[in-house]
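Researcher: I'd like a structural prediction for the single chain below. Treat it as a standalone chain; there are no partners to consider.
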Amino acid sequence: EDMNVGEICSRVVVVAESNTPVQQAAKLMRDQHIGALVVTEGSAEARRPIGIVTDRDMVVEVVAADVDYRMLTVGDIMSERPATINETAGLFEAIAQMRSGGVRRLVVADAMGRLLGIVAMDDLIPVLAEELSALAQAIRVEQRRETQRRP
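Model: Treating it as a single chain, here is the predicted structure.
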């Protein structure tokens, strides 16, 4: 049975509202050691992702643009309509979506569009490595069998 995105995504997502000051968001990202936070709206039980802010957004939209960060909110610099994937999607679907969207992370949502987690390329790599290792093992076993059958 194939693993799905919901099984490997990180369920601990750091979120912010769109009116959060950029500096506060940057401190949150530093304190939590994360490279992205999900911008949400709605109550805690039914949070909907409306954007995403990455450390790169901070650099490109704030530092490089030479704007006064004290005037900016997360809503000003977030990428709207973040790349989102359903929790039931398979890993290869996630990879395909990352590739086509040119993104390193996907927001994971349930069927109602509520925020469940976030899945990063870094989460997929160990899982895929394990799959490849199992495959390599199966090939070795098969080759050994073949050798024993036909000396």
